Amino acid sequence: MNTRNLMRCLWMLPIALLFTQCNKLEETVYSQTTESVFFASQKDVTAALTGMYRPRQACCGGYGQSGTMVLNGTSDEGNGASQWGDFPKLVFTASVGGEGEIYQWWTSSYAAIAGANLIIDNEAKILAIDNSAAGQAFAKAAIGEAKFWRALNYFELVQMYGGVPLRTTQTKRADQVNIPRNTVDEVYTQVIQDFKDAEVNLPATAPKGIVKKWAASAYLAKVYLTRKDYTNALAKANEVINSGAYTLAPTFADVFDITKENGPEDIFALQFVNVDQQGTRFASLSGWGITSVDPSLYPKFAATDSRRAVTFTDPTNPASNQGKWLFPGNSGDNQPNNFIIYRYADLVLIKAEAENEVSGATIAAYTEINKVRNRAGLPNLTAGLTKDQFRDAVLNERNLELALEQIRWFDLKRTDRLKSTLIAAGRPWNDRYFLFPIHQIEIDASNGVLTQNPGY
């Protein structure tokens, strides 16, 4: 357990600071932490960094419930529903109950961005309290981490909702509340710049569970791949791979072994502990039967593929639930499993894909995809594939390697296969499903400044 985990009880403090300036209290307040007196020590900064992650950890707008239901459920991997949407049937609207998972994803993302903005806006204070002899390394790393987290959240938002309002400073006045949507290109420009800034300021090495500069570089590779800028995607992937900062875990099971968390494959993992209900709920979601695995996923795995035994709770049952985040002896809420948002196998396959797009199915492209296949106990990929065939092979490998890790929907969308794949899976497609709806609550609250996505 790293220092951040020990301070998790402090998460409410920096998040609370985001709202104190909007309150008009009649009574005299004799003791209250405000932004004006915060960031007086490195401990304050660490508390703020911990707090900015909390919205994406908490139920129900984080990677647990919302991510599992929405991103897995609307791909061809998930099979389940909630009271706010029958996601596999693509039944969701902009006006369901205010606590729907799609809405929760939106609000938790912006809460996380607000936490990052709190830190970024106080850069001068944070630099001033860092008297270290290492060129203000602590302060720069803090700012870099906040920009990394802001970029990650906007990267997910722009893929899911299209152009969204860009908030790069704290909201402090009424006239800053309702702002229009930025364009997709404007959001991506901010995402790339934030990841570049993080890359410059984050350390090249760090304790387990703490973000390194290579995580920002790896995300740049993924952003460029999503934008079909394959040359830059390949260059960034190569930088990370050549750095030696990460390696594949010895076995696929090791990646999700609770005793081996923050292992060599984790590029970025959201940290959880089972203290004061700060754990995950992945297993309980499966137990409720609302986030089960679509049976069509099971036969995609060869019998010799070691990933099948880890991906499913019952490796002999195509209808069994996901098994990657189970915690022995506890099938309910509040499990200590970290959630790996980005891991090295993903990046290795990004390099294989980008290499193929730039130069075709080269030896280098085969080398990368075979690393992943061989670890799973599979032979090398068939030699002599065309560029199109290799592209299909990489997407299939990503499906098997990263199954149920909330990545498939993004992969299908960026490769222009979301519509065709979901139609083939028997889903009732409508072109509005290329984007998720912005909840009507947000539209109404903005007095019409915020516009809805087409078809909702």
Commentary on this structure:
The chain has about 450 residues and is mainly alpha-helical. The chain is about 45% helix and about 5% strand. It has 19 helices and four strands. The chain has a two-stranded antiparallel ribbon with strand order 1-3. It has a two-stranded antiparallel ribbon with strand order 2-4. Helix 3 runs parallel beside helix 7. The N terminus is likely disordered.
Q: Can you lay out the helices and strands and say which pair or pack?
A:
Blueprint: H1 3-6, H2 12-20, H3 42-57, H4 65-73, E1 78-79, H5 101-121, H6 123-128, H7 137-161, H8 184-201, H9 213-226, H10 230-243, H11 252-255, E2 266-270, H12 282-287, E3 292-293, H13 307-311, E4 339-343, H14 344-359, H15 363-375, H16 387-401, H17 408-414, H18 418-424, H19 440-445
Antiparallel strand pairs: 1-3, 2-4
